Amino acid sequence: MDFAMPADLQAYLGELDAFIEAEIRPLELADDNIRFFDHRREHARTDWDNQGLPRHEWEELLKAATRLADAAGHWRFSAPKKYGGKDGSNLWMAVIREHLAAKGLGLHNDLQNEHSIVGNFPFVEMFEQFATSEEQKAEFILGSFEGKRRTAFGLTEPDHGSDATHMETRAVRESRDGIDGWRIDGRKMWITGMHVATHCATFARTSGGDGDAKGITCLLVPTGTEGMTVDEYMWTFNMPTDHPRMTFSNVWVPDSARLGPEGGALAIAQSFVHQNRIRQAASSLGAAVYCIEESVRYARQRKPFGEALAKNQAIQFPLVELATQAEMLRLLIRKTAWDMDNTPHKQIERTLSDKVSMCNYWANRLVCEAADRAMQVHGGIGYSRHKPFEHIYRHHRRYRITEGAEEIQMRKVAAFLFGYLGPRKNTPGMM
User: Fold this and answer.
1) What is the CATH T-level fold of the domain 151-259, as seen in this structure?
2) Which of 3, 105, 250, 363 has the most C-beta neighbours closer than 10 Å?
3) pLDDT surpassing 90 at residue 154
4) What is the per-residue pLDDT across 340-364, written as a single tens digit (0 to 9) for each?
């Protein structure tokens, strides 16, 4: 057992830091691009007269940073080598994402858009495992890296958020012009990124009854397909938005648009969420560490009544508790990421899903508590938009819902703990 940071990983963090200072920071400061990160950030990013969507200039800046990171060999770090990546492990990604988020707001790592100089690509494993043809795999994996394909994730529905097994969207087999395919009817909600997506991975019940885990199929519906409409973009706590409510009415796609086996799409959803959740946990931890460290720094400098604010136990003790939780969480995240690297992908759901949920729900709760405490320690300036804490809080608050509501994740942990699921099933009382 060795908890030391590998020398090559430490060296890579240094390489990333140097790249940020040499390439990303100058771009962030050019042409008043800092407006996207300082107190003007929400207005600068949001096109209020266009459904609250991201402004074109903001998304172009993110693309420019991504091109620089890709040219430097960092952006595809976690992708397989055959797609131009470095086969980056879950453990390395956890360390890297914490490191970048702990730097605070900046063009190097803007989590509101899932943007980072070291990209996160859970779709790669999803298509590697479930593509129905080599052509489909190449189209959506290589196409995504080349900017030709972007797939939105159409799982959630207006009346069925956390419980996908009761989804009302239906797909039935139907041939048109002699081609076998599927007709889709239903509604979806919170389908992030549809304003730039080329396809919507639409989950629909094709067999079985309400509540059945089997019988749900995933169909890749091209944007612009007749009958698939965006009804409105939902304005959220942290703007801009890219989360629409959608309707599918007599939408037809050929069977070649199917991703994965007929009736087995929930496994696709699970393959997507585990990588996302452990990496999101690491980012939330990093943002929490940033809030804690900024609060400590401010408390040591601020001197009301002639004494450093840091001398007050009312300031010390809440930050001590947050720092303690951050240290413990870091170990759990890295241990879980290491376990994921040493477990076959399709077994992670059965053996490690509870640990991933522990990491995710606790990290997302911790960062909200840390941001709130940072506002309190900083006083009036902490509440203002001239500090980033309100932005961190508003952004990360969503993950207590959208990465799987924390209650759902706690229920998963409980199912493993009490032996209803996982390795302890039918062996109650054994840790």
Assistant:
1) Butyryl-CoA Dehydrogenase, subunit A; domain 2 (2.40.110)
2) 363
3) yes
4) 999 988 788 889 999 999 999 999 9
- Cα–Cα distance between 164 and 167 in angstroms, integer? 5
* pLDDT of amino acid 250: 98
With a cut of 60, say whether residue 430 has pLDDT above it: no
Read off the pLDDT band of 44 (50, 70, 90).
very high
Domain-wise residue ranges, the chain:
7-120, 151-259, 267-417
The yes-or-no answer to whether 151-259 and 267-417 have a common fold is no
Instruction: Say whether pLDDT at 214 is over 60.
Output: yes
**Which class in CATH covers the domain with range 267-417?**
mainly alpha
Mention the CATH class of domain 7-120.
mainly alpha
* C-alpha distances out from residue 57 to 62, 99, 168, 240, Å: 9, 27, 38, 13
pTM for the model stands at: 0.94
